[in-house]
Amino acid sequence: MLLAMNVNNTNTSFGLHAGGKWIVHWRVATDRAKQPDEYAMLLRSFFEYSKLDWSQVTGVALSSVVPPITTVFVDLSRRYLGHEPLIVTHQLKTGVNILIDYPAEAGADRILNALGARTLHGCPCIVVDFGTATTFDAISQEGDYLGGAIAPGLGIAAEALFSRTAKLPRIELTAPPAAIGRNTVHAMQSGLVLGYVGLIEGLVARIRAELGGRAKVIATGGMAHILAEQTSVIESVDPMLTLEGLRLIYHLNREE
Questions:
Q1: pTM higher than 0.85
Q2: pLDDT tens, residue by residue, 100-121
Q3: Is 129 a catalytic residue?
Q4: How far apart are the C-alpha atoms of 171 and 111, rounded to whole Å?
Q5: Looking at the structure, do residues 61 and 157 belong to the same domain, yes or no?
Q6: Cα-to-chain-centroid distance, residue 157
Q7: Residue 158: CB partners within 8 Å, gap ≥ 6?
Q8: What are phi and psi of 11, to 5 degrees?
Q9: Is residue 66 one of the residues assigned to a domain?
């Protein structure tokens, strides 16, 4: 049984894979103040709630874009699970040619999304990941990772409006009834949610043109479903894409 751990700036995801399928997955807020013992107890409670035995874990794969707490999860894996985790970097056998100027700058999650997308969805393709940042990753017809674009995440943009203005409220990030907002909340939802739809459609059109063909667009991340409902550009929503890439890269580098 493989335990996959994906640590992002806002959330951390755990997934258990065995018998050719994901048995269960959990998602928690990333807390840089938590110690290995605290995360271990949290993880153990998930196992117990799901009636699973963590002594059955045979391997651990770790992806992290938060260097200060990567060691926390490494320590958790060593001390509580008895496994040296496979940590995703560009130096691993990734199954993807990373053709950006400085491969060391490629975020682990973006490598995993590229691997998962080319394996599960085919090439060429574009992955839009709605996380703390909104990232666009371009994968060529040959399956090479070419780079992409990084924009502030929808949550960051909403928080900036709330914290940097005197009268704008914190709002629910859902689509408004119309683009012309007739009150403050709807106006903000229009600018944020529909504004990000315009961002998605504009960047996808440009990236598709540079890829030179019809590239499939796959969305993942916490806000993917909300934004996918507002545009036909997004053809598939795959919430497990990053964990699936983590599973694939684990098998490329280790036996389960």
A1: yes
A2: 999 999 889 999 999 999 999 9
A3: no
A4: 33
A5: no
A6: 18
A7: 170, 171, 173, 188, 192
A8: -130, 155
A9: yes
Per the residue annotation, which of 75, 109, 129, 238 is the catalytic one?
109
Count CA atoms within 13 Å of residue 131 on its CB side.
27
Residue 67 structure tokens: 């260097």
Q: How far is CA 175 from CA 50, 161, 183, 184, 225, in A?
A: 34, 17, 14, 13, 11
The CATH number of residue 20's host domain is: 3.30.420.40
Instruction: Please name the helix (run of DSSP H) or strand (run of DSSP E) that holds residue 61, with its range, or none.
Output: strand 59-64
Whether 115 and 62 share a structural domain = no
Residues 79 and 130 in one domain: no
d(CA 73, CA 94): 21
Q: Map tokens 């008895």 to a residue.
A: 82
The 10s digit of each residue's pLDDT in 225-236 is 999 999 999 999
Three-state secondary structure call for residue 240? coil
Q: Which residues contact 141 (CB under 8 A, 6 or more apart)?
A: 123, 124, 211, 213
| C-alpha separations of 227 from 77, 175, 221, 235 in Å | 35, 8, 11, 12
The strand pair at 133-139 and 125-130 is best described as: antiparallel
Residue 28 gets the label, from left (phi > 0), alpha (psi -120 to 50) or beta, of beta
What is the extent of the structural domain holding 44? Answer: 2-87
User: Which alpha helices (DSSP H) does 164-223 contain, by range?
Assistant: 184-189, 195-211
* Residue where a domain terminates, one of 87, 111, 144: 87
Domain count of the fold of the chain: 2
